[in-house]
Amino acid sequence: MLRGAEIFLACLRNEGVELVFGYPGGAIMPLYDALEGSGIRHVLTRHEQGAVFAAEGHARATGQVGVAIATSGPGATNLVTGIADAKMDSVPLVCITGQVRSALIGTDAFQETDVFGLTLSLTKWSRLVRSMEEIPAVIAEGFYWAREGRPGPVVIDIPTDFLKSKMEFAGPVKFTPQRRPPETTSAGAFPDSVVSLLRTATRPVALVGAGAKLSGAIGELRQLLDSLNVPTFATVHGLGAVAPSSPYYLGMVGMHGTRAANMALHETDLLLVFGARLDDRVTGDPTRFAPNAKIVHFEIDPAQLDRVRCCELPVVGDLAETVPSFRQRISRVKLPDWTEWRALACGPDRAELDPRGLAQPTIRFLDELFGRLPDNSVILADVGQHQMWAAQRYRSASPRGFITSGGLGAMGFALPAAIGVQLSKPDATVLCVSGDGGFQMNIQELATVRRLNLPIKLVIVDNKYLGMVRQWQQLFYQRNYAETDLSDNPDFVEIARAYRINAVRISEDAVSEYPVTPETGDALERFLRSSQPELLVFDCAPEANVYPMVPAGAALSEMLFEEE
To answer: In a designed cystine with 254, which of 45, 55, 282, 330 is the match (CB 3.0 to 4.6 A)?
Structure first.
């Protein structure tokens, strides 16, 4: 006879779970009581949102399912932002929440919350466990749906009495879904149609999104793109999928994308989309997105097709299957000569302007910092101006080397997510880039960093504003900086030291020369090479802006630049 909590943990181990993140409380306490000897390492964060973001960091860095645990009521509600983030960014995540005793459900008992109803629209699958006997089946099905197809979040809510009671346990079970009829536009049906479109195209381009990483198809996709040799760009989640050294690669596309990428996408007559959902930050005004193009959309989730702009040819399936099939098909045909189009799209006339204006020192600082990172580094960016500067300056060919909250844009994501990444990749250099606003949203996780002695490198770009909101207020609200002034920020260096973390501050003057002075270079080297957690505060000009920028409702070709 085993307690329900012991059965629950045995089923988690059967799913390959070795690391979980959480915060205990009354309803989930029996699960914590059974942790010792379970073979599962639990990491205590200082807030449930820290736990779910850390679980996301683990999942994003490894491709494995992240697991977060919380108690009922406020514990469960504190997970909601992370669940929504995982849904938007296709992160495999299982959240386990304790619930009040089964007999009390519906009575407004202490810390009772309808977690199932609360998260229904944010999950791929969720379940309130209704009996001890179904624990193994619920866990098996939950993990299946977290991984299957387009990955995403799952919530399993379990009453505390089921965790305490005992029953005979025959062992974990396996979930077998009902077979579905094959998609009519599956991998075997598309190649001839795509080849026909390629043969008639004069200005083809390729757009790479997160799906390329999630599918594990990076190697095949890179070979395909080398064969096509057409101008190629990436979403923020697609960064690293294409080697930046590739002569046809134009960088990030979208609201803060490169001049070359946005112009090529605006002028193309054939757009090949590989695993990107084409949200508004990528498309700009959808009625003027790639206005002259036919679109071939390679996508695993049919629900993502035609949501913003209709595509002429959907290719539904896992990129791990559709990309190799496509590559084999075009290897047997002669494609047009697109030399002139490549020369225009990738030529010097489309190159980025040298960084200038108030943002120049910050850009130079990030270039200096990123240029010193070893190949195994992972950069995590929080949300705001620093996020876009970091994405623009990212130059690594590591597919999982740049991690951020993209679809939801959740401030406070990066610090706890960096904890999950560092625990999953102990030999990697993990660099967390935050703004002064977002950093304070989960600043309590400095205690987790210190307690675990994680050698995370923490950077705060401190402009004493909610910078991205302030930028919009400057450009579109007549500089009415309503409630975005953070000039009363604390001294982050002293706060870090209170957590027993080494900290330094670097001013803009320290990077005013190029190359930087030996003293500044040595300081950056010491910061990155330390075996301890380190914090570096960089003073950024308060009114520095991120450019290029596509205003809301504008076409990608209508970018704003610093000189304007």
So the answer is: 282
